[in-house]
Design brief:
Layout (H helix, E strand, L loop, with lengths): L1 H32 L9 E5 L5 H10 L6 H10 L9 E5 L5 H10 L5 E4 L6 H9 L6 H8 L2 H6 L15 E4 L5 H15 L2 H9 L4 H14 L6 H14 L6 H8 L9 H4 L23 H8 L8 E4 L7 E4 L2 H17 L5
Length: 346
């Protein structure tokens, strides 16, 4: 009996030890996979085309403040993540665990970003602004914007292709490639130019692209958006009469210098299809990427009899509008006198 009792004790002891070991292993594994991050707010990390694992580890330490780097590497090894990095933008939430993050990264289940652009003049500026927010490079986008096959297939020219990009906030994936980005913007463009807007463009005798070109001039002329519809009506009056637009911003664009404070005769002599002092009608493309408000202001222009405008002599940024040349000349004389008093000669 004593021997049998000893055997039972040994069996029980072994069983208890086994479960104790299992419990210990479970607790260890749980502590590893449950490793969290010392953050109070969501944090974004980015994995670019280089798929640099060391850079990822730095971001997890510095930005996400991971509690234990070694635990992340352990889970990454088990799930074979190191050789399976996928590009993209990933948000780490304060309540996430290492296991959840590794699974998210390994699956490429990235989070979209909010892409925003507005108040942009030149094509180069546009490419730079977009490249600052997405994975592809500025040069890659510029190459696409200057690709005749791409812009012709979408119904544009090299000069007016930027009119396709409607300033707004868009949700896209950070690692979207250039082709998909351009196609998305084209889709957004066709959605923006719905039947209602297209019918308004027809009513004023312009194509959607021409509306954008005129809107770009209107925006460059105005400091205050409440003048957009007024100036839009003025320029439409000139177009309908076959008069030169004589818009100073188009001259600045032709010269390549928007810092000019006083447009002089030498500027007006610039040979360029954008110089509306020398060429009738609209220039071949926008002189900036017009905003939705600018486009809407042309489509819903103020019906007026104005043919002339001149900056106010108080330098408020507003304009004096005139119906006749004699009235305009008086306004222009007051403005020139104000410039002379301040010794602004260029």
């Amino acid at each position: 009996m004593a021997t049998k009792k000893k055997i039972i004790i040994w069996v029980l002891a072994a069983t208890i030890s086994f479960f104790a070991v299992c419990a210990g292993i479970y607790c260890y594994v749980d502590s590893v996979v449950s490793t969290s991050f010392g953050i109070n707010n969501p944090v974004s990390i980015y994995i670019n085309q280089e798929k640099d694992y060391d850079r990822l580890m730095q971001d997890l330490s510095n930005k996400a403040q991971i509690e234990n780097v070694a635990n992340f590497e352990t889970v990454a090894d088990v799930l074979k993540y190191k050789g399976n990095l996928k590009t993209g933008h990933y948000i780490i939430r304060p309540d996430m665990t290492v296991l959840e993050l590794v699974r998210k990264l390994r699956s490429g289940n990235q989070d979209p970003v909010k892409l925003t652009f507005n108040n942009i003049r030149m094509k180069d500026d546009f490419a730079k602004r977009i490249a600052e927010q997405l994975m592809f490079s500025e040069s890659a986008l510029l190459t696409s914007l200057n690709d005749s096959i791409i812009y012709k297939n979408k119904g544009f020219t090299k000069e007016n292709f930027v009119a396709m990009f409607i300033p707004n906030t868009y949700e896209v994936y950070w690692d979207i490639d250039v082709d998909r980005f351009v196609n998305k913007m084209y889709s957004e463009y066709t959605s923006f130019w719905n039947d209602n807007r297209k019918s308004k463009a027809v009513e004023i005798g312009l194509s959607p692209i021409e509306v954008s070109v005129l809107a770009s001039i209107v925006e460059e002329e105005c400091t205050f958006s409440d003048e957009y519809p007024v100036v839009g009506g003025l320029y439409l009056n000139r177009l309908r009469r076959g008069q030169l637009l004589q818009a100073d911003p188009t001259v600045k664009f032709a010269v390549g210098d928007f810092s000019i404070t006083r447009v002089l005769n030498k500027h007006l002599e610039t040979e360029s299809p954008y110089n509306t002092y020398r060429n009738k009608g609209l220039p071949p493309g926008p002189i900036r990427i017009p905003s939705i408000k600018g486009i809407e202001s042309v489509l819903n222009y103020q019906k007026n009899d104005y043919l002339y405008m001149c900056a106010k002599e108080d330098f408020s940024g507003r304009h004096n509008f005139a119906k006749t040349l004699s009235e305009h000349n008086r306004n222009a004389a007051k403005y020139r006198a104000a410039l002379n008093r301040l010794k602004i000669f260029q």
